[in-house]
Design goal:
Shape: elongated
Number of strands: 17
CATH architecture of the largest domain: Orthogonal Bundle
Keywords: Iron, Metal-binding, Monooxygenase, Oxidoreductase
CATH class of the largest domain: Mainly Alpha
Strand content: 15-25%
Distance between the termini: 50 Å
Number of domains: 3
Oligomer: single chain
GO molecular function: iron ion binding; oxidoreductase activity, acting on paired donors, with incorporation or reduction of molecular oxygen, reduced pteridine as one donor, and incorporation of one atom of oxygen
Structural class: alpha+beta
CATH superfamily of the largest domain: Aromatic amino acid hydroxylase
CATH topology of the largest domain: Phenylalanine Hydroxylase
Helix content: 40-55%
Pfam families: Biopterin_H
Protein name: Phenylalanine 4-monooxygenase
Organism: Flagellimonas olearia
Radius of gyration: 29 Å
Number of helices: 22
């Protein structure tokens, strides 16, 4: 096992555990720790004024330190007190898996950390975004329940084939953007590819719509009033650039509603508008309203068609409670209703999320076809027939029958047996020597073996994934591209050593380090690095070494002149240090 488990993680199904990877805490460099510390100090100082009160409270409750990147094991010891856990993954994972983790009260944390060059914002999920953004807010019970419920509903949303293509494109961009030395042209091409895909997605799938809801709440949500909003979305909480930008008049504030599901977003750019929910409970209200539009709750012909278009493993549930899981291939319809549904390949049957004995994928390796509806000329549906009714209509062991459904599907053969649920309702009628036809077209032939006729007059639900997780081998995840770990140059190793020495000095582990010597070597060998001089300035301030402070500030001014893009980052770092010492004085 590549991670330390606990009672919450023990409950995860195997197919989710395949995404978990070890955190490898020792791989974080002193530069990584400095990036974390800078972002967290700046965030806590600023966000304590503009974030929802749950954020600062949650930092304390979840044990997230300002000075150290969180260790997943330590986080889990504290998170279990509020009924949650966290696992490390490699960057983006498929949206349905991400949401399913949430349904089990597990936070998915991309354990990599952004480069210093992307300190303000990165499209890649990283530990700043996940650990410092998502984790603190779940200490709020109402929000935590929203997140869990969102995962439970979201993982049932039906995707389209194009959704997965977009997921791979976004994952690719996040990887190359965080990789050292990626040519700007390659990044631009990846961004254009995403833009092209987004413009040509066609009608948005359920997953696309619910992903929009996730983005405008969990990632980029505001709470309160349009005039006086507070931040709670993890994307904003973890972005020192966008958390300030979003509070300006340049970002439009809109009352949160179901309209958010139909509002697209661009992961590569700051958001031009944000939605404001009055409170966390309202998030759940909008989520339930949206769930009422999903095939999960509506079923019907449209639900079956969504599953066919997805080309992925899904489930339909009939009005009897019988659940059929597989890849849906075809549907015959009449008057806007399905009359015969066909899967292809391995199919399993279940009732209440538990596979029916004798109806695994081994029994149905080549697909499964089922009539839907009532019998022609008979007022009572098969599912509503009691034992006497079934016998009266010759739906009985040993009877050779011809059953014609209202949609024109005919089932002819000899009945062997029936399968009932615990309440005695008939779910399946099994035939031998059976022929199933529709308008002369053969849908099932006797030589194909036994025919298990599903019973149900309506499709009441259609959703992503299998009814019983154990019915299918879901350990099929293959990451086509992993985050890039560059080979470090001698110069980079030297810079990491400087950062490490100053970190050890600040933490009292090695006070013999000459800060002045490190500074002189840094100026000579790494004249463009700005974060370590800011840390040195903090130590000079603490030691009341005025001459050293002035020397560092002069060097930082040179860096700002040569690289104006980092000017505000330097200024903010110095201002934060000066302000903290003013408070002490």
């Amino acid at each position: 096992m590549s991670y330390e488990s606990n009672p919450i993680l023990d409950k995860l199904p195997k197919h989710l555990k395949q995404f978990i990877k070890p955190q490898n805490y020792g791989d974080y460099t002193a530069i990584d720790q400095a990036v974390w510390r800078y972002v967290m100090r700046k965030n806590v100082d600023y966000l304590s004024r503009v974030a929802h009160s749950s954020y600062v409270d949650g930092l304390k409750k979840t044990g997230i330190s300002i000075d150290h990147i969180p260790n997943m094991y330590g986080m889990n010891r504290i998170l279990k007190e509020i009924g949650w856990a966290a696992v490390a993954v490699d960057g983006f994972i498929p949206p349905s898996a991400f949401m399913e983790f949430q349904a089990y009260n597990v936070l998915v944390i991309a354990s990599d950390i952004r480069q210093l060059e992307n300190i303000e914002y990165t499209p890649a999920p990283d530990i700043i975004h996940e650990g410092a953004g998502h984790a603190p807010i779940i200490a709020n019970p109402e929000y935590a329940e929203y997140l869990r419920r969102f995962g439970e509903i979201g993982c049932k949303a039906i995707s389209s084939a194009k959704d997965y293509e977009l997921y791979n494109a976004v994952r690719h961009l996040s990887i190359i953007k965080e990789a050292h030395g990626t040519p700007e042209k390659e990044i631009e091409e990846a961004e254009k590819h995403i833009e092209h895909l987004q413009k040509n997605m066609g009608k948005p799938s359920e997953m696309a719509l619910i992903r929009n809801l996730h983005w405008w709440t969990v990632e980029y949500g505001l709470i309160g009033t349009v005039d006086m909003p507070k931040i709670y979305g993890a994307g904003l909480l973890s972005s020192i650039g966008e958390s300030a930008w979003c509070m300006t008049d340049q970002v439009k504030k809109i009352p949160y509603s179901n309209e958010a599901a139909h509002t697209e977003f661009d992961i590569t750019k700051p958001q031009p508008q944000l939605f404001v929910t009055p409170d966390f409970a309202f998030l759940s209200q909008v989520l339930e309203d949206f769930a009422n539009t999903m095939a999960l709750r509506k079923g019907g012909l449209s639900g079956v068609q969504k599953l066919i278009e997805s080309q992925a493993l899904g489930t339909i549930e009939l009005s009897t409670g019988l659940q059929v899981s597989g890849q849906f291939h075809d549907v015959l319809e009449q008057d806007g209703k399905p009359i015969y549904i066909q899967t292809k390949g391995a199919t399993a049957l279940a009732y209440r999320e538990k596979e029916l004995v004798g109806h695994s994928t081994a029994q149905h390796p080549d697909g499964f076809g089922m009539p839907v509806g009532k019998l022609k000329g008979i007022n009572i549906a098969i599912e509503d027939m009691g034992p006497r009714d079934l016998k009266a209509y010759k739906i009985y062991e040993g009877e050779e029958v011809s059953l014609e459904f209202e949609g024109g599907v005919k089932v002819e053969g000899t009945i062997i047996t029936g399968t009932r649920n615990l309440r005695g309702k008939i779910l399946l009628v099994t035939f031998e020597n059976c022929t199933v036809t529709h308008n002369g077209k053969v849908l099932f032939a006797p030589e194909w073996g036994l025919y298990h006729m599903a019973v149900g007059q309506h499709v009441v639900s259609a959703f992503n994934g299998p009814a019983d997780l154990a019915s299918f081998d879901l350990i099929t995840h293959e990451i086509t591209e992993t985050t890039i770990k560059p080979k470090k140059s001698p110069e980079r190793q030297q810079l990491e050593l400087y950062y490490q020495q100053i970190r050890e000095f600040r933490e009292g582990k090695n006070t013999t380090i000459s800060r002045n010597k490190v500074f002189q070597e840094l100026k000579e060998n790494h004249p463009h690095d700005w974060l370590l001089p800011v840390e040195l300035y903090e130590l000079a301030k603490k030691g009341n070494n005025v001459g050293f402070q002035e020397e560092i500030l002069s060097h930082l001014e040179d860096i700002k002149r040569n690289n104006p893009k980092v000017g505000h980052l330097i200024d903010d770092g110095i201002r934060l240090i000066d302000h903290s010492f003013l408070k002490v004085d």
